[in-house]
Amino acid sequence: MDAIRTNALTLGYGEEDIIEELDLVIPKGKITVFIGGNGSGKSTLLRSLARLLKPKDGSVVLDGADIARTPTKKIAQKLSILPQSPVAPEGLTVLELVKQGRYPYQSWLNQWSEKDEKAVQRAMEVTGVKDLSERKVDSLSGGQRQRAWIAMNLAQDTDIILLDEPTTYLDLTHQIDILDLLSDLNEEENRTIVMVLHDINLACRYADHIVAISNKNIYQQGDPDTIVTPELVANVFGLRCQIMNDPHSGTPMCIPFSRGRRKKDADHERKMDA
Amino acid sequence: MIEKNKGKWIGLGIGSILVMFFMWGSVIWGLTKIDTQMVIDSFLHFDGSNEHIIIQDTRIPRSLIAAAVGASLAIAGAIMQGITNNPLASPSIFGVNAGASFFVVLGITAFGMTSLMSFTWLAFLGAALAVIIVYSLGTLGKDGLTPIKMTLAGAAIAALFSSLTQGMLTLNEQSLDQALFWLAGSVQGRDLDILVAVFPYILIGLVASLLIGKQINVLAMGEDLAKGLGQKTWLIKVLAALTIVLLAGGAVAVAGPIGFIGIIIPHVARWMVGIDYRWVIPYSGMLGAVLLLIADIGARYIIMPAEVPVGVMTAFIGVPFFIYIARRGINE
């Protein structure tokens, strides 16, 4: 079963193409992670899946229908997106933010309902921001703020959630915290999650399906255990590395080669000094 | 809903009373002493006395115009700040007033236009042109619309239109008087006829502004988020731009360019009721009317018996406030 698929999708700004004739299938009920170097077009691709960017050519298909021909509110009831580092208007409270997630269900005739209220309360419970509901979003810590935004996405009550680098600017503790939350949402509520991540090791830990993007198309895709190799990292990121098994999760772990000072050298220097 | 926002509803009531109080004050306070009885008499048995003429021809138009223009400029500023997420956005800073002024002056000097209706359409045209240019310039480049780019584009367009206006005036001295008077930005000495001519458009703008508050709340979270939530953002922006053109263009057609109301008042309104534009917009309307009424009443007393142009009064109040907002930084 596929949640989203693209047909010969070409994307770009102005003259330049960033993605060319891409055919992609996002599996339903799984966590899919896009990886790739800076400027590889992974964020651009994610935005186009959420109809934030119009394709130059080709199409994005959601539930058998081209999203360009589906009413945008209907799409918003099936698919939500959290853009990269969103900024809440100054003074907006967490509750006000989460309530905006119900926008796709409202119209001139349908004002705020019992169902909307329930969805908002539930979204705040699941993400653990209920106690913060009256706090201003701009006064929260980075991790809390990201939870509040995810709560807004959850209030939207969609089967598919797209997130563009949801861990940017968070310290490691909060990166893990947010990814654990998303993993729970996937397992317990069977939501399809598609996200862009920078950290290849975290991508390997959380993804069911990795899509590595390079040269305006898919370099390789599949289960991280089988596809993530030194060769992939070299071709996608231009980085030489060794791949080991993550001692905690057993997933692939990338050990980059670098010129940084090695412990061996440090020992050597100490001996010389003595 | 009513229970929860009780304070805000009460505030709206108090605000409306204040607007009416200062509208009343605008009629009775000034160089010529006027009392309530005279105002009533001037309606019931007009006797052609100096006082009655002043009430009917000067004070009442002035009071109505100040209220309508103040409310329009403040609401136009609130909508601009909401959709651009830019605390410095306002009709005067972004060149909308200057665009409307330039077209009116062009009409007076180059084409000898004198009819009120032609002023109105020229003002709408100029305001619309300024909105389109500033928005297009602010969106140029890969990172799209940013507050900084838009503010710079607005400042540039405001300067361009102002200097074009100056140029028109030096070239056409015979029509200088009429144009200068109109350009001074004032609610005094304006005919009630022009308000009557423009008011239907301002009214449409006011009603539209009250209806799009909820949409502005969504758009204020950023274009991507609004689109992700299923908003037709282009439609909302077009509606908002039309509303701004009706309100700011209408205000300039009646009173000439008056600055600072559009930038200060939305901040005060947000300080009072928070970020929700369903409240910010009506509060801005009320407060804008009150501020311009007070500024205009004050303008009569500072160098009595002469008067200060009300645009100078609003600048006096506005400049320190503007510096304060700018120092707090543009939200990026």
From TrEMBL, chain A:
Subcellular location(s) per record: Cell membrane
Protein name: ABC transporter ATP-binding protein
Alphabetized PANTHER family for the sequence: IRON(3+)-HYDROXAMATE IMPORT ATP-BINDING PROTEIN FHUC
Record InterPro entries: AAA+_ATPase, ABC_transporter-like_ATP-bd, ABC_transporter-like_CS, Siderophore_ABC-ATPase
Signal peptide: none
Organism from which the protein derives: Allobacillus halotolerans
Positions with biased composition (Basic and acidic residues): 264-274
Xref: Pfam families: ABC_tran
Primary localization: membrane
GO molecular function: ATP binding
Stored SMART domains: AAA
Residue ranges occupied by any ABC transporter domain in the UniProt entry: 4-240
Keyword terms of this UniProt record: ATP-binding, Cell membrane, Ion transport, Iron, Iron transport, Membrane, Nucleotide-binding, Transport
Topological category with respect to the lipid bilayer: Peripheral membrane protein
Region spans: Disordered: 254-274
